[in-house]
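Incident review: delayed structure delivery

Summary: a single-chain prediction request sat in the queue longer than the usual turnaround. Root cause was a stuck worker, restarted by the on-call engineer. No data loss occurred. The affected request and its eventual output are reproduced below so the record is complete for anyone auditing the incident later.

Affected input:
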Amino acid sequence: MDAVCRPWHRLARKLPSIWGNIVLNEQWTHGVEAFHRILSQCLTRSGNSPILVDLDLYPVDTVEVAQTLLATIAPHVARCYSFSISVPQPEWIDLIGQHFGGRLAAKMESMALRFKPTSPWAAAYVQSTILQGSMPLLHTLTLEGLPLTVLNVSLPGLRVFKYKQFEELYSYPQNAAAVTPIDDLWHVLRQAPNLEELSVEYSSFSIPDEDLVGEIGTKVALPHLKTLTIGHLDAGFAHVLLQAVEAPEVDKLVLRCDPMRNNMDAWCIPTRWAANLRILIFDGFRILDGSPMIGLTRFLSGAKRLQKLSITTPVTIATHTTATPQFFAVLGKSTPSGGWLCPEMIEFTIANCNLVSGHELLNFIKAREGSRMVPNIQFLGIKECAGFDVATMEELESRVSTVFYLPPQSPPMIPPSPIHWHQGPLYT
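Output delivered after worker restart:
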């Protein structure tokens, strides 16, 4: 805008709010020194208007340069309403506390702190607390690669909390740097009683002795929680989390599993979570290959309000099982008591399951059409199912208002293991 013409130039200088977005990421290709010059101009021209700060320090070469950038922003950070920073070196994390620790609370609405290690062995945790006090306006908080002890704040307005440790180090459970005490998670959650969305992914926790046997003694009440996402946690941690959190209003539950490890087949969802669910998403579970399907169907029998069900299974070489057709047969008929499984379901998605031919989908859709007790399926998603018979597509589209079909990759791709960093994907 500043360079279009002279009238636009004069107008841009009179609008401080348009200079308030300060972003350094991989799209910036002009060097850190050029960014520092523009940073100074933006901070001056933005006046007293609120600012957004989004810094990815990965391209920064030295701690001295990083310190110069942060020192330039520090006097203005009190008017920052959105703050996001990613650091590649553990010793740089202390710079955040030095420059911003006592100045971020007043107007902060959204904050993301990320530690992005340059190697899988750089996971040295910082023990210091970066932020203390109260952040009354903060509604969205993201922590990645950092210990939960970096925060010691009251979060009465927090609505969204996303926590992720090291995505790569998740596959190295013997590395102590990838483990955090689960009591630290309980402490943060208790500081946010109005939380509506919680996501915990790629994390390993240490569990206190008293929670290893019998009932889970620790309870965390989140009465306003609506969405819960648990991704790439070992089954034991997922079980403890689902047992400890009391959230009667949750209507969306997302569970993701590591496709390389496949250690989450054990059913770990307490049945009390089923009653109010409207959206249930499984990603990476072998729940249609055999015995895990039993736990799924028994759980779904309590999901009377469920409207959307999505199942993504790991890529498998299995060519036959009775579990998959049996699952769709159960979905397509009433129970002995006269009810139906998922009686309010209108959306269904299946992905990566090469045991699905399309005919069982057609049969269960026809069966639900013929009943007055359940609504018709309005959305059907079929993604990368190698055994799917495209000949069934025409009739599926005639019976379902929206059908999304994504053909399988050829050849099917297996995600690379973190052990083979910087190597290309492996193919079957």
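Verification: The radius of gyration is 25 Å.
Action items: add queue-age alerting; document worker restart procedure.
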